[in-house]
Fold:
Amino acid sequence: SMANDTIFGRMLRGEIACNEVYSDQHCLAFRDIQPQAPVHVLVIPRKPLESLRAANEEDTELLGHLLLVAARVAKLEGLDDFRTVINTGAEAGQTVFHLHVHVFGGRPLAWPPG
Ligand code: 5GP
Structure:
């Protein structure tokens, strides 16, 4: 899959460093290099899925796990309130084509987003 070749794929393979927050058999969570809030963590599956669009029925458990880890990360970071975002496709703001869940918090977050 193309998702193997992204910067996130390189992090998963240990080829480049990341600021890790949480890791397990199925996913990795690390701080965004360009944080948009006091807490801005990305949760990514070890499986190289390009986006949510590329997920299918066999990924049901994995997708649930990513959301539970996002909530765990928020708790680890001391957040009660937080936002999770998945951008799918360039027009929606996706710039890295390896599925990732953004976890934002630590300041009031406006709605709707841009
Ligand atoms: P997207 O725009 O695809 O939803 O989110 C990609 C995110 O990855 C952006 O928030 C961007 O700042 C972050 N990012 C891009 N390259 C790197 C990197 O090399 N290291 C880390 N930690 N984050 C990155």
About this structure: Residues 11 and 17 are 6 Å apart (CA to CA). The mean pLDDT is 96.
